[in-house]
Amino acid sequence: MKVAIVGATGYGGIELIRLLRQHRHVTEISVFSSTQAEAPLTSTYPHLQDVYKGILQSMDTEELATEYDVVFLSAPPGVAATLAGNLLEGKAAIVDLSGDFRIKEPSIYEAWYGREAADATITGQAVYGLSEWNQEQISKAKIVANPGCYPTAILLGLAPAVKNNGIDMTSVIIDAKTGTTGAGKNPAPMTHFSEMNESMKIYNVNEHKHTPEIEQQLSEWSEEADAVTFTPHLVPMSRGIMATMYATCTSYSSAQEWIDVYKAAYEAHPFVRVREDGFPATKEVYGSNYCDIFLDYDARTNRLTIVSVIDNLVKGAAGQAIQNANLMNGFEETEGLEFVPIYP
Ligand SMILES: NC(=O)C1=CN([C@@H]2O[C@H](COP(=O)(O)OP(=O)(O)OC[C@H]3O[C@@H](n4cnc5c(N)ncnc54)[C@H](OP(=O)(O)O)[C@@H]3O)[C@@H](O)[C@H]2O)C=CC1
Ligand SMILES: CC(=O)N[C@@H](CCC(=O)OP(=O)(O)O)C(=O)O
């Protein structure tokens, strides 16, 4: 397939290039920029010398729509909302990494994102790209809304418990930590080295934009779904998310029963590894498309503790985007993604 990347100079964009270089069905990768047209990508990213020789091109939506089989939109909020209408008229399958089309209800999007929602007909057409749980719809989609990085880790971690009606949906608390690449490549006060090094920051308490995305999916899985408490933290690492979820149990009363439920749920899904014994660390999925999960049941409190880790730039962004493009094009979902985590 011929592939185009809009926002190729960003962190999601260069991660797409790294992964797509290993994809056996990709014949061409073209890169687009709103500010650096005609420059080689190596002028921004010298580590790509002799690896990728592409020159950044200015965006032409007609060309994007007609010349490519897949267009990855890896740009800031609002860009996909502007481009998608024209792109949908062409042949390309579209995978949008931003949050523009994830939230179905425009008023909810506007309340949490503080900006105008995208055209409702396009959002209605966009399939939520949580690959493991939405494969059938993704495989028929023309446009996929790739999930946010936190919701990917959180929803994969909660899904088996929710779908088996094993937890009280009013009791869900999510405590999550992320590395700085989650904020993109542009420096900001929060991610400045001297602000975050040897420190830990809590942010957007009870107002993070991923909250409605999590709640929307939970409500599709369970009639009992309710509001969740979601608390994000920034920790001093470049990549990685660890999401820790707590919930009161309504069935199953041992850790082993819970592990069996999770093992069964993810048996057929190569990128979700339910651990045998012990909680995963973010480093154990670094640079890979894996989501590793482990859980424990506490009989004293009747609560379940679930831990889910991903690399935010891979399973949380570029990797899941390619997994979705594979499903949309009828390829093996693992194509181009079978990376062993970089360890240590
Ligand atoms: N970083 C992460 O962990 C994750 C990111 N995402 C989402 O993916 C998207 C990309 O994120 P990330 O790569 O981190 O962000 P970056 O800020 O690193 O990169 C975004 C890129 O978008 C391009 N861009 C800016 N304005 C425009 C425009 N008007 N039209 C077209 N392109 C534009 C810029 O390149 P140029 O100036 O060359 O055009 C820039 O390099 C965002 O929507 C983000 O929310 C989703 C999940 C995880
Ligand atoms: C550290 C940091 O700022 N992380 C980002 C992660 C967002 C993201 O990457 O996903 P979206 O596509 O939904 O924007 C945040 O908390 O907003």
UniProtKB/TrEMBL annotation:
Annotated GO biological process: L-arginine biosynthetic process
One cellular component (GO) term of this entry: cytoplasm
Record Pfam families: Semialdhyde_dh, Semialdhyde_dhC_1
Catalytic reaction list: N-acetyl-L-glutamate 5-semialdehyde + phosphate + NADP(+) = N-acetyl-L-glutamyl 5-phosphate + NADPH + H(+)
Entry's localization field: Cytoplasm
GO MF terms, alphabetically ordered: N-acetyl-gamma-glutamyl-phosphate reductase activity; NAD binding; NADP+ binding
Keywords from the named record: Amino-acid biosynthesis, Arginine biosynthesis, Cytoplasm, NADP, Oxidoreductase
CDD domains assigned to the protein according to its UniProt record, in alphabetical order: AGPR_1_C (cd23934), AGPR_1_N (cd17895)
Every Semialdehyde dehydrogenase NAD-binding domain range: 2-141
Alphabetized SMART domains for the sequence: Semialdhyde_dh
Pathway(s) it belongs to: Amino-acid biosynthesis; L-arginine biosynthesis; N(2)-acetyl-L-ornithine from L-glutamate: step 3/4
InterPro entries in UniProt: AGPR, AGPR_AS, AGPR_dimerisation_dom, AGPR_type-1, NAD(P)-bd_dom_sf, Semialdehyde_DH_NAD-bd
This enzyme's EC code(s): 1.2.1.38
Residues annotated as catalytic: 149
Family statement drawn from the similarity comment of this UniProt entry: Belongs to the NAGSA dehydrogenase family. Type 1 subfamily.
Biological role: Catalyzes the NADPH-dependent reduction of N-acetyl-5-glutamyl phosphate to yield N-acetyl-L-glutamate 5-semialdehyde.
Database matches in HAMAP family: ArgC_type1
Protein's recorded name: N-acetyl-gamma-glutamyl-phosphate reductase
Lineage: Bacteria, Bacillati, Bacillota, Bacilli, Bacillales
Name of encoding gene: argC
